[in-house]
Amino acid sequence: MSRAPEENVAYLREYRKRPEAAARSKEWHDQYAAPRREQLAAKTRKYRQDNLEAIRGKDRTRHKMDAYGITQGEYDAILELQGGHCALCPSIANGKALCIDHDHSLDGRDSVRGILCDSCNLRLGPDVEWLLNTLAYLEFPPARAVLN
């Protein structure tokens, strides 16, 4: 006797609450899943190792699209406009992806300012006012007013 899908879902929810369901689930896991865990993990590791660059590239491209709404082609065009390096220093990627610098007060494509190396991106930080304060501090150090 077959159930309608919604009846089956309700039945399974109730079934899983019963103690014998947990015992049967554990029995299935111990008999079938656990012995194959290492085999599946090894297969997954080998696939990732064999396809690492493609996986990394897809992850980076997906992140750019999801977070900033830009394509790989647009990323490449921005990088080319910057001369193929960080917008603030001559650092190039060296096998590592450069960071997309963005204005935290804006969303999506409008937030993108340029492409930076990790070092410059960390130095710049999300707070531009901090950078302006740093410039003022360097130009007019408070110790000079006391010591001179």
Identify the CATH architecture of the largest domain: 3-Layer(aba) Sandwich
Helix content: 55-70%
CATH third-level topology of the largest domain: His-Me finger endonuclease fold
Poorly predicted runs are none
The amount of beta strand, in percent, is 5-15%
| Structure classification | mainly alpha
Give me the count of strands.
2
Assembly state (oligomeric): single chain
Cα-to-Cα separation, first versus last residue: 94 Å
What's the tally of helices? Answer: 7
Shape label:
elongated
Main pleated-sheet profile: 2 strands, antiparallel
What does this molecule look like?
- The protein is mainly alpha-helical and 148 residues long.
- It has 2 domains: 5-50, no CATH class; 53-123, His-Me finger endonuclease fold, CATH 3.40.1800.
- The protein has 7 helices and 2 strands, in the order ααααββααα.
- Strands 1-2 form a two-stranded antiparallel sheet.
Fold topology:
Elements: H1 5-17, H2 19-50, H3 52-68, H4 72-81, E1 99-102, E2 112-116, H5 118-124, H6 128-139, H7 142-147
Antiparallel strand pairs: 1-2
Q: Outline of this structure?
A:
The protein has 148 residues and is mainly α.
Short key terms for the protein model shown above:
148 residues; mainly alpha; His-Me finger endonuclease fold; 2 domains; two-stranded antiparallel sheet; 7 helices; 66% helix
